Each structure stands twice: as C-alpha cells, then as structure tokens.
Amino acid sequence: MKILETDRLLLRNWRESDRDLFREINRDPKVMEFFPMRRSHAEADAMMDRIRQLITQTGLCFYAVELKETGEPMGFCGLSDAMLPDLLPEGTVEIGWRLATRFWGNGYITEAARALLAHAFDQLHLAQVVSFAVHTNRRSIAVMQRIGMAHQPDGDFDHPRVPDSHPHLKRHVLYRMTAAEWRQMQA
To answer: How far is CA 53 from CA 5, 27, 65, 147, in A?
Structure first.
C-alpha cells in the first residue's frame, strides 16, 4: 500500500522482503544510540508486524521509506499516535523516523518528513503534529528544525518508558508544528 511519493522516495506499508532491513535498523548501535535497547530478530519481527497491521487498520504508523531509484527499503518515517497520555493530549500525532546508517546524510528523512507534514495538514486535517527526541540527539533535532517545527521548552519531559537504568536517555525535547504554522510556511 503506497502512502506517499516524493521525487526520490516512496512511503509505503512494509513488505515481507523488508524484514532484514527492519531487523538491521532495530539492532544497529548507531541507529539505536538514543534508545535503551536493541531488538532481537523476534522482537523486530513482532514490531514490524504490529506496524503493518496499524497501517492497514488506521493508515497511520511508521511507513517504510523506499528509494525509488533502486526499490531498496532504507528505514521508516511516519505519523503515529504519540501514546503519551499523561504528557500530551489524547490523539496527539507524532512524526518519527529511523534510517539505516548507509543512507544518512542524503536528506531522505527531511524529504519524507516534509511530505508527511503536508499529508498531515492538507489531507488528514490534523491541528498539530509533534516530534520528540532525547535532548542530546542532535541529528533528529536538526531534522525537526529543518522541517520547520518549533521547540516547545515548556513541553520537554522525562520519557516514562525509558528505564531508570538509562538516565541519560530520559530527558526529551518536544517540537511542534500547527496546521496554521504549516500554512504560513507554504504561503
């Protein structure tokens, strides 16, 4: 199922043939630097199956990002329920991404994220989209800034699902874009 297409990318649901790439990005220490764990093959497979099902059922979750030129999957970028009910209003949608390291530095995530923001505001008519990352994750924060999101310092938080065994990963910064801000950027 195709979700979106950009000049260089196809955002789509996951296929069985993507499983090796999904496993790779979930165990790579560089990709997972700001997460408290790496996933085993079985855990990555279960996560991919859940994501596929959510995309099929709701149209939202973390879509596979495919390089159109080669047909190769590279990682994911998507819109998903933020699932932080004690910190963000119910139904808050986040934009998030993960990319295999061999594809870093080419602007693929920025391109995919911009297309997803357009989709979020123009087709899904969302009022806002948020993104959050560990406060020291400069790469993800740079993407948030490049796509026009604004830091919300009063919304920064300690992530409740990060275990106390990883205190350096608890503090997260919150970025947000509203539909009005998106429209103003497009004018």
So the answer is: 21, 22, 17, 28
Dihedral sign from CA coordinates of 64, 45, 21, 133: positive
Give yes or no for residue 1 having a pLDDT over 80.
no
- Beta-carbon count within 10 A of 185 CB: 13
The tens digit of pLDDT for each residue in 98-154 reads 999 999 999 999 999 999 999 999 999 999 999 999 999 999 999 999 999 999 999
- Which residue is listed with tokens 């939202």? 60
pLDDT number for residue 2: 84
Q: How confident is the model at residue 32 (pLDDT cuts 50, 70, 90)?
A: very high
68: which residues sit within 8 A by CB, 6+ positions away?
A: 5, 8, 9, 10
Q: How many CB atoms lie within 10 A of CB 84?
A: 19
| Structure token digits, residue 181 | 């801000």
Calpha distance 115→11 (Å, rounded): 10
CA atoms within 13 A on the CB side of 77: 30
What is the rounded distance in angstroms from the CA atom of residue 65 to the CA atom of residue 108?
9
Q: Which residue has the tokens 């789509």?
A: 12
Look at residue 41 and give its three-state secondary structure: helix
Chain-centroid distance of CA 49 in Å reads 17
Instruction: Round to the nearest angstrom and report the end-to-end CA distance of the chain.
Output: 31
